[in-house]
Amino acid sequence: MQILNRKQLEAWPPGSIYIGRGTPFGNPYVIGEHGDRDAVCDQYADRMAYRIAQGDPATLTALLGLKADSSLVCSCAPLRCHGNEIESAWHHLQEAGLPKRKPSMTYAGIGSRKAPPGQLERMTRAAQRLAAMGYTLRSGAADSADKAFEAGAGEKKEIFLPWNGFNGSSSSFVSPSRDAMDVAAAIHPAWSRLSPAVQKLQARNSHQVLGEDLRAPCDFVVCWTPDGAETEQERSAGTGGTGQAIALASRWGVPVFNFARHDAGERLHAFLKVRSHGEI
Questions:
Q1: Are 61 and 186 a contacting pair, CB within 8 Å?
Q2: 101 in a domain, yes or no?
Q3: At which of 74, 96, 118 does a domain end?
Q4: pLDDT for position 277
Q5: Which of 88, 147, 189, 239 is the most exposed place for a label (fewest CB within 10 A)?
Q6: 258 with 267: CB under 8 angstroms?
Q7: Are 160 and 176 in contact (CB under 8 A)?
């Protein structure tokens, strides 16, 4: 991992991550107001360690998006920078790993509004069978895929809305939390350019994958997108808004089964059989 000074760059390396204020990695402590350079970096390190220990979903989501060869861009290097503390926190997380979690018996059923009729019918059948196995659906009340999953889930569902009454839904899971917005900001490549309404639409994905309190990841994601993406690395323009949830699931190690892939049903069947000897 390298820490670069934006003032010294003619061009940013591909995939560079800006860590200045106003970003998920920004340092809220200011030189002068909160102490000298070492003091504000030390305070940032303490803050980061505390948030990791508390399982803060936004902090963990941001760290999980880094790689060993990531380029962090700031305005400090080669002077000491809070980027050094980000790198240290990332190494710690790599060594410790995420806390082990028990199955939540939930899944995210989502997908593109372009899903063909045959796939929509398949989603409804899958939701019916998963409900019979005891799984609760998490979805978002959008037309097409979301509605198809919801139609099969019966009462076993948690439908997260960006605002009250979205798309005619009467769900009580209304408006993403502040933390859900922060999680979404850590994932979306152009968060600051989104309108408030679109930010809320994207942030409800945080709850679909991580749960109402953002500390109970779903057990798996079932979806359909035109490009068949199942990981953050495979996300493309064709993935659409579903890519936000796929990327988040990918970072948290939640398996994704995209019905656009011919073997997705078989892999989901095998996954469920290992977990509960069920079939779908």
A1: yes
A2: no
A3: 96
A4: 53
A5: 189
A6: no
A7: yes
Length of the chain: 280
Task: Answer for the pair 21, 27: CB distance below 8 angstroms, yes or no.
Answer: yes
C-alpha R_g of the chain: 20
Structure-token match 């899971």, residue found: 173
In angstroms, the Cα distances linking 181 to 48, 136, 161, 230 are 19, 23, 13, 22
Helix (H) / strand (E) element for 9: namely none
| Claim to verify: residue 71 and residue 161 sit in the same structural domain | no
pLDDT at 97: 87
List the alpha helices (DSSP H) in the chain.
37-53, 57-64, 82-96, 117-132, 145-153, 178-187, 196-210, 242-251, 264-276
CA distance 140 to 158: 8
Q: Which residue ranges in the chain fall short of pLDDT 70?
A: 277-280
Scan for tokens 């059948």, then name that residue. 125
C-alpha span between 96 and 201 (Å, rounded):
33
* Residue 140 identity: G
Tokens of 17: 């991550």
**Token pair 């980061």 is at which residue?**
48
Q: How much is the pLDDT for 226? A: 96
Do 206 and 143 belong together in one domain?
Answer: yes
Read off the pTM. Answer: 0.92
| Tokens, residue 193 | 């350019």
- The structural domain count of the chain equals 2
Using the Cα atoms of residue 186, residue 13, residue 243 and residue 280 in order, give the sign of their dihedral: negative
HSE-up of residue 195 (Cα within 13 Å, Cβ side): 4
